[in-house]
Amino acid sequence: MLKPPAGTNAVVLVLHGGRERGTEPVRRHNLAYLRMVPLARALRAPGVEVWNLRYRVRGWNAPSLDPVQDARWALDKIAELHPGKPIVLVGHSMGGRTALRVAGHPDVVAVCALAPWIVPGEPFEQLRGRALLIAHGDQERMTDPAKSLWFARQAKTVTDRVARFNVEGDGHAMLRRARDWTRLVVDFVHGELGLEPVAPDIANAMREASPRGLDVPLGGSRG
User: Fold this and answer.
1) Given CA atoms 105, 142, 59, 151 in this order, what sign does their dihedral have?
2) How far apart are the C-alpha atoms of 47 and 122, rounded to whole Å?
3) pTM here?
C-alpha cells in the first residue's frame, strides 16, 4: 500500500494477472505481480492512496473466481477505511477481467483494463456510469484484442465514457513501450480523479462515436 503524505482523497486498486487455473499462492516474486509494482508507484499523487493487491492464489478458478473474491474484499476494506472516497481500478490480463467484474462497487468511478482477458458473454452492465479505458498491444499473443474491442462496444451501450487504444509494437508483457503504457494509465487515472485535465487523446477517443473511439492507435511517445 502506497499512502499519500497528507490524507487520502481517492484510492487506486491495482490488480495483477494470473492463470485460468492455479491454487498455488502468489508470492512477492511472482512476475505478474511484480509487473504492476512500477505502475503502482507511477500512480502515486497527492491525496491518492495506491493499493497493489496480491491475490491469495494464482488462478481465476471458475466457478470460485478467486481474484474476484479478493478484489471485492479489498474494495470493502477500502470503503471501510475511506468511506465515500472514489476508487479507480487498474488491472492487467486476468486482473483486467477482475477489474471489469467488480466495477459495480458503489465507490468505483473508473476502470482501466490493460490487455484484459475477455471471454464471450462477459458481463458489462456493471460499468454503467463508470469511465472505462482499455488498451491492448497489437503484438498480443496471450489475450485476444478482438474480444476487448467487442467488450468495449458492449460497454459503450451503458456508458458514454469509453476509450480503447491499440499499443502499436507491443505485446502482453507491456515491456517494449512500458513508458507509453504507464503514461496512458497515469493520464487516465489522474484525469478521472480530477488531479489534472483529461489528456486530449483520451478525451477525443471518448467523444468519438462507436467504433472509432474504440480502436485508436497509440502511436509515438507520450512523454
Assistant:
1) positive
2) 33
3) 0.96
Residue type for 151, please? Answer: F
C-alpha cell at 63: 466457478
Cβ atoms 104, 76 nearer than 8 A: no
Residue 87, Cβ density class (10 Å: 0-12 exposed, 13-18 middle, ≥19 buried): buried
Sequence letter at residue 134:
I
Alpha carbon separation from 59 to 55, 82, 95, 104, 116 (Å, rounded): 9, 29, 11, 22, 15
Contact of 94 with 117, CB cutoff 8 Å: yes
Name the burial class of residue 200, with classes exposed (0-12), middle (13-18) and buried (19+) by CB atoms within 10 angstroms of its CB: exposed
The residue type of 44 is R
- Long-range contacts: 31-40, Cβ < 8 Å, 24+? 32/58, 32/92, 32/93, 32/94, 32/95, 35/92, 35/173, 35/174, 36/90, 36/92, 36/95, 38/178, 38/182, 39/14, 39/90, 39/181, 39/182, 39/185, 40/2, 40/12, 40/14
Phi and psi for 125 in degrees, rounded to 5? -60, -25
Condensed to tens digits (0 to 9), the pLDDT of residues 154-201 reads 999 999 999 999 999 999 999 999 999 999 999 999 999 999 999 999
DSSP lists the bridge partners of residue 137 as 167
The answer to whether 67 and 60 have CB atoms below 8 angstroms apart is yes
184-193 pLDDT, tens digit each? 999 999 999 9
Q: Give the bridge partners for 52, in sequence order.
A: 14
